[in-house]
What does this fold into?
Amino acid sequence: MSKLFTLHSDIFLECDEYIQISEYLKNKINPIEQEFLTEGIEFYEKHRHDSDESI
Amino acid sequence: MKSTDTTQTNQFDANGLKFKIFNPKIHQLPKIDFRQTNGEDPLSVQEYYENCILSRKAGSTEVKYVIKYFDNWIGFFSIDLTRLHSKNFELVHQYEKKGDEKRSYQTPTWALLIEKIGIDQRYRCYGIGKYIMLFCSGLAHSINKDKQIKLIIFKTTKSLAEKIYFPKYQFRFTNAKGRLVWAFKRIN
It folds into this structure.
């Protein structure tokens, strides 16, 4: 999935927490969330090479 | 606001932020106070900073980013890919049977986990948390070509979820009896 992560972790949620998240995921991304995500994509693109610079 | 506490003002220039993958061999960060203003550390952020970043020990699997504002180190966050499961699969299975939609909850949900977020006490109230969330959203999107990652998720206090993460950034949060909750938001 990504070169950034070599391993992954596992989280075991309480049942009601897991169901709450699963229910939330049944809906598609809404316009407000999409707007935030679009802003995030632009912000990340601007900063993704910050680590390439010197200290 | 380039060098010392005394020069801190209400002006904040987001162009001065840099997000660097922490490299213990080259990054030497100062001691920074990440506790809450009341001195508490309910999410063990200070403890994590001192044990995993300040000590410059390598080891854990998560990716750590350290944040600079012009010449000052002002924060960090650590992230990991994670799979979400239910502790009690039987209860989830019963719920699934009652529901209208046939959907298997056996398959774990992939998420980008923000394990820790630390912002220097002196740099709070500048919206740096938002920039961290934007960065993580963009990062998750960039590594998610196959659309497997569904969420960004992190543990926080119920108080912060209610006052900041939900109203400002639309992060939902789990109903919990205790002080801590999971905050989450879909990314596709």
In short: Helices of chain A lie at 15-26, 31-47. Chain A touches chain B at residues 1-2, 4-22, 24-26, 29, 32-33, 36-37, 39-45, 47-48, 50-51, 53, 55 (CB under 8 Å). Residues 1 and 7 of chain A are 10 Å apart (CA to CA).
